[in-house]
Amino acid sequence: MRVSLFITCLCDMFSTDVGKNTVEILERVGCVVDFPEEQTCCGQPAYNSGYSTDAKESMKQMMKAFQFSDYVVGPSGSCVGMLKEYPKVFENDLVWREEAKRLSDKSYEITQFLVDVLGVVDVGSTFKGRVTYHPSCHMTRILGVKDAPMKLLKNVKGVDLVELPVKEDCCGFGGTFAVKNSVISGEMVKEKSAHVSETGAEYVVSGDMGCLLNIGGRMTREGKNVKVAHITEILNHH
Amino acid sequence: MLSIKLGDISYEDRVQKGVENDFMRQAVASAQGRFRSGRQNQADKWGNWEDWRTLGDEIRTHTLENIDYYLQLLSDNVSKRGGNVFFAQTAEEANHYIQNVVKEKNAKKIVKSKSMVTEEIGMNEALEEVGADVVESDLGEWILQLDEDPPSHIVAPAVHKNKEQVKETFAEKKGYHQSSKPEELAGFAREQLRQEFLSADVGVTGCNFAVAESGAVTFVTNEGNARMVTAIPDTQISVMGMERVVPTYEELDILVSLLTRAAVGQDLTSYVTSITGTCHEGESDGPEEYHLVIVDNGRSSILGTEFQSALHCIRCAACINVCPVYRHVGGHAYGSVYPGPIGAVLTPLLDGYEDHKELPYASSLCGACTEVCPVKIPLHEQLIRHREIIVEQEKKSPKSEQLAMKGFAKWGSNPAAYKMSTAMARSATKPWMKDETITNGPGPLKGWTVNRDFPAPAKQTFRSWFKERQKGGESQ
Amino acid sequence: MTIMNREAFLEHVTANLHRPRRTNGVERPQWSIRPQDEVLKGLSKDELVDVLEEHCKVIHTNFKRTDRDGLAAILKETIEGYKAKAIVASSDSRNEDYGLHDFYQKLKDDGNEVHLWDETNGKENQAFAERADVGITFSDITLAESGTVTLFNNKYNGRSISLMPRTYIAIIPKSTIVPRMTQATKQIHEANQAGDGVASCISFVTGPSNSADIEMNLIVGVHGPVDVTYIMVED
């Protein structure tokens, strides 16, 4: 199966490891991974801030970049969720509406792709440590992926999974919200950080880099000894 | 005159005030916890909550698409049952009509049950202008009225107050001498308000739902004050937002069932009271004179737009109860009669962007509101639509942001520029970097680093790693 | 009665919908789904009674069972339990069938004040209800799911009886029990369609009045009754 990796701009810039792990997991389960070089950003930062005209420029580039792909798989519920919104965004655009639908239909978040498309729930990973999982809002509510990440995490050998209290609450990231409404966002991430501490976990894991930058940034600021890890790090550990 | 907008404090100051109010935040968090588990338990109990939501959505969609028909039918039926109906396009028209009824009756005391639409139109102040004394009879609303404080939640208006504050208010305003035990406070309110009911000249209610097929105006309550208001005074006025209409009793069933579950996690509230016009011949309680005031006040301009489904709202506050933003800032931070996610959507629609342009941004777009809404309003999507209008039509977004987004468009549509900037991100942020983190960033990063650290961009971007790996063959 | 300002208002509303005004011919669609019919579906009356009894615990309501012969004794016991001396009751046509005329007479003979709602008494009815210790009515339709008694208020059954006294007793003939509000609203809808004008006030009453307005503490008994008993009667 040929899969095109959608790296997402955050992972491209801040965490090379997420990309590496995603590629290795996909190859391990039998996929051939390519990386369309022309890809940029899904457009969400502009789109969610109300700049849909500006956002569309980036979105069109994404549609061009992935036009020849069979499957597009990315390590982010939020960014893939944005791709899924393209048909709505280009609803009245006769030129792009077909391509928007095609990209939306063939795009998957990595855990969603493994579980729902490939039917894989055990990727043969071993990870020793106490781990709590933060389900990102866009993964669960926009993309509708609720169970796949936990199915995969439960099959990791040696992992000690603990439930995060009120896990469904937003961490306060929200893209430009974190900067524009910094006071409120700050209170939200303090609360999330406190919930993580309650679990006694050594690692807080999520499928979205934005949440991890936010939660991790808060916890290092508080001097807490809790590491953040993208879910692919746990799923590609031996 | 008070209206949808509450006060003149800036958004930033309201937020700051909210965040600094520890008691309020604790009270709101605990209330949210109870409301949320109550709602969730009810959804789990039925097991097919999504089916109910689908039905709720269908009913509201159909009703709004035919609202002219249903309002005509409703008004015909209320009239047949002895009631007067006044259609008010504006708050002023509604208040003027209500003032006239009160003046004609030479009424001195008005007793009122909880109603958001009367808050929205500023009815109490309008009645005070003509010399009438308006008494709120919902316990929470009465507390706030005595304390001259606006509601901060549409179901639990006094959620931001603690019992000590309530005790002090009662002592100061009403000569209360007992303890701060909620039972004693409520017992005192019962005695005081009973006298108010018995001596009132006119009763005013809101309206949860109005049944078009019969003209029945329905109230969903727990305390029983709406029953008192509709059983005792001889003259009654119900005020309804025009979207409160339902076709028949069968749809009333569904919407009431969704409301009580989504709002307070009850199968039904203690009282669901459905009154139709004036009392009949021989009946010795209930109104001899009845008025229904149907209020537009900006609602019709929402019809036929992408925001139409915001009028689905049944005022259950489920979105407020799950909202993390509301939890940290409280209801007053919204500066509107309608707080929380639905408030952030509705307020600019009813009262314009000028005074409320910050509200659509008071959301992380986490979508928790959309997920719980019993009538499927896509709240977070409507917040994005608002932002789009503020940016592209109203041109009210900051210049610096506009420039940044223009830059974004160039960056995102030009792979070469994109590649170069990601490759250079590390060296560009180097001056602020310390041990692979940025703790005091420049420009927009400041908003971030005031509360948390920012990581240093990676030493090698993913794409350069992938390229190297391909060159080295795929065997590693 | 008068309808004011309607035409201008509705024309304005219609203009926003970008279509001609609809003044007739609108039919409710067949809704795609009817989950309300699935609730407590297929349960027997006895099973519905059990659901009702169980739900009374949730709504802070006492539940008693009896038959017609036992009703007077249970009522007496409940009234005494409430230390009630002034009693207001509906002058329901069922009073006769259930032997309540004799029962109320006996209460009077025992020195209690008993007031049966009387259409010729005007405001005195409410004045009595205001100082009564207990109100007694029959339930017209009883909803098992929510523990709700439905009252069609009229000149025999005033709104105040179940509202103003500190305590309230609802007599529930077993035959009035249905699964949920769906069956009640269907019945009301059909009666309305048949041209039998609906009651001026329909009260769905679910236990005592309550409030959570002070620090979210549940306070039972605010403006309405503070204590409620349902007596289910085999009929």
Describe the secondary-structure layout.
The complex is a heterotrimer of chains A (238), B (476) and C (235).
Chain A: E1 2-5, H1 9-14, H2 16-28, E2 32-34, H3 44-48, H4 52-65, E3 71-74, H5 77-89, H6 97-106, E4 107-109, H7 110-117, E5 126-133, H8 137-142, H9 148-154, E6 157-162, H10 177-180, H11 182-199, E7 203-206, H12 209-221, E8 227-230, H13 231-235
Parallel strand pairs in A: 1-2, 1-3, 3-4, 5-6, 5-7, 7-8
Chain B: H1 11-20, H2 22-46, H3 49-65, H4 67-80, E1 83-88, H5 91-104, E2 109-112, H6 116-121, H7 123-129, E3 133-136, H8 139-147, H9 163-174, H10 182-199, E4 202-205, E5 209-211, E6 216-221, H11 225-231, E7 235-241, E8 245-246, H12 249-264, E9 271-276, E10 289-295, H13 318-322, H14 324-329, H15 340-351, H16 368-372, H17 379-393, H18 399-413, H19 415-429, E11 433-434, E12 437-438, H20 445-449, E13 454-455, H21 462-471
Parallel strand pairs in B: 1-10, 2-3, 2-4, 4-7, 5-8, 7-10
Antiparallel strand pairs in B: 5-6, 6-9, 11-12, 12-13
Helix pairs in contact in B: 2-12, 3-12, 15-17, 18-19
Chain C: E1 3-4, H1 6-17, H2 45-58, E2 62-67, H3 68-81, E3 86-89, H4 94-97, H5 100-109, E4 113-116, H6 124-131, E5 134-138, E6 141-143, E7 148-153, E8 167-173, E9 177-178, H7 181-193, E10 201-205, E11 210-211, E12 219-220, E13 227-234
Parallel strand pairs in C: 2-13, 3-4, 3-5, 5-8, 6-9, 8-13
Antiparallel strand pairs in C: 6-7, 7-10, 11-12
